[in-house]
């Protein structure tokens, strides 16, 4: 069933969009990621203009993350205090990111830079997560193996400490603020929720339990992405409501399914699956950057720059 998207100015199969929304919703519920790092390239692939894809995908991230958070709140696996600290950093980061994005746009190299950011961040994080998760799975198979305790070092040495009861932590608020800030900047520049960076950072840098990380990550993503969407809608007018609604419906249903799957899986298996997915997307984006395009030259629209 073909449906016309007024802002994107293209016709797309409605069931395809519902399916894509559902898949990303499942990932959101399982891993605590918004899914933008996967959905945005998929929207490019089916012919949605990049500016519309980035802005509209942010709406879908908000919806699927909200749906996932509700499920995690029922299970009491959301650290609201930690989420609030991350959120403060995230909102500041998103505002900085928009200013930075406009500056890069004025230089005319924003598309290339965004793709390079994707490849670098996804490659480093996916690789580190995969190695650590693989080691954790191997350790869990050894009978009588003691779990490795993470050394926090610098995180514990910093001032302005606060108790995070749900996470079982007593650490400085500075590292969560910095993580939130970085994720906020990326959300504004790359059109992603930032969960693929925030989830590993919360696990490995802050030492939070994986089950709590997922719900807390989604809580922060909702507000930062909503703020970014609002900026896109009011400054660039690139949010396609029809596209957003279809992705939304699929995303909300998928998030509920994903949350149920995630609760039943081991933390190590969840992390290695997310790592593999991040590496696959990284590989595809790197391949697209290196391969020669089918059309070397394009004719600009009259009056364009």
UniProtKB/TrEMBL annotation:
<comment type="similarity">
    <text>Belongs to the 4-toluene sulfonate uptake permease (TSUP) (TC 2.A.102) family.</text>
</comment>
<feature type="transmembrane region" description="Helical">
    <location>
        <begin position="12"/>
        <end position="39"/>
    </location>
</feature>
<dbReference type="InterPro" id="IPR051598">
    <property type="entry name" value="TSUP/Inactive_protease-like"/>
</dbReference>
<feature type="transmembrane region" description="Helical">
    <location>
        <begin position="51"/>
        <end position="73"/>
    </location>
</feature>
<keyword id="KW-1133">Transmembrane helix</keyword>
<feature type="transmembrane region" description="Helical">
    <location>
        <begin position="85"/>
        <end position="104"/>
    </location>
</feature>
<dbReference type="Pfam" id="PF01925">
    <property type="entry name" value="TauE"/>
</dbReference>
<protein>
    <recommendedName>
        <fullName>Probable membrane transporter protein</fullName>
    </recommendedName>
</protein>
<dbReference type="InterPro" id="IPR002781">
    <property type="entry name" value="TM_pro_TauE-like"/>
</dbReference>
<feature type="transmembrane region" description="Helical">
    <location>
        <begin position="237"/>
        <end position="258"/>
    </location>
</feature>
<feature type="transmembrane region" description="Helical">
    <location>
        <begin position="212"/>
        <end position="231"/>
    </location>
</feature>
<dbReference type="GO" id="GO:0005886">
    <property type="term" value="C:plasma membrane"/>
</dbReference>
<feature type="transmembrane region" description="Helical">
    <location>
        <begin position="270"/>
        <end position="287"/>
    </location>
</feature>
<keyword id="KW-0472">Membrane</keyword>
<keyword id="KW-0812">Transmembrane</keyword>
<keyword id="KW-1003">Cell membrane</keyword>
<feature type="transmembrane region" description="Helical">
    <location>
        <begin position="110"/>
        <end position="131"/>
    </location>
</feature>
<feature type="transmembrane region" description="Helical">
    <location>
        <begin position="177"/>
        <end position="205"/>
    </location>
</feature>
């Amino acid at each position: 069933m073909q449906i016309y998207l007024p802002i994107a100015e293209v016709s797309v199969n409605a069931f395809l969009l519902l399916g894509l929304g559902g898949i990303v919703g499942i990932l959101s519920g399982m891993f605590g990621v918004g899914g933008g790092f996967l959905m945005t390239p998929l929207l490019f692939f089916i012919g949605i203009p990049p500016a519309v894809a980035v802005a509209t995908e942010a709406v879908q991230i908000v919806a699927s993350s909200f749906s996932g958070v509700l499920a995690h709140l029922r299970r009491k696996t959301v650290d609201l205090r930690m989420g609030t600290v991350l959120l403060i950093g995230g909102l500041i980061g998103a505002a900085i990111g928009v200013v930075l994005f406009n500056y890069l746009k004025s230089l005319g190299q924003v598309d290339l830079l965004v793709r390079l950011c994707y490849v670098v961040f996804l490659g480093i994080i996916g690789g580190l997560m995969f190695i650590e998760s693989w080691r954790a799975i191997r350790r869990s198979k050894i009978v009588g193996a003691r779990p490795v305790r993470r050394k926090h070092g610098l995180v514990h040495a910093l001032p302005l400490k606060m108790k995070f009861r749900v996470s079982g932590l007593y650490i400085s608020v500075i590292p969560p603020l910095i993580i939130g800030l970085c994720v906020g900047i990326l959300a504004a520049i790359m059109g992603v929720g930032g969960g693929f960076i925030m989830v590993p950072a919360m696990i490995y840098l802050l030492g939070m339990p994986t089950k709590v990380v997922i719900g807390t990550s989604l809580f922060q993503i909702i507000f930062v992405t909503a703020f970014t969407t609002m900026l896109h809608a009011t400054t660039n007018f690139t949010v396609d409501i029809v596209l957003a609604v279809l992705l939304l419906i699929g995303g909300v249903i998928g998030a509920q399914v994903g949350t149920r799957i995630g609760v039943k899986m081991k933390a190590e298996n969840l992390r290695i699956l997310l790592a593999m997915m991040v590496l696959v997307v990284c590989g595809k984006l790197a391949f697209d950057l290196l391969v020669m395009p089918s059309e070397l030259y394009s004719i600009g629209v009259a009056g364009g720059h």
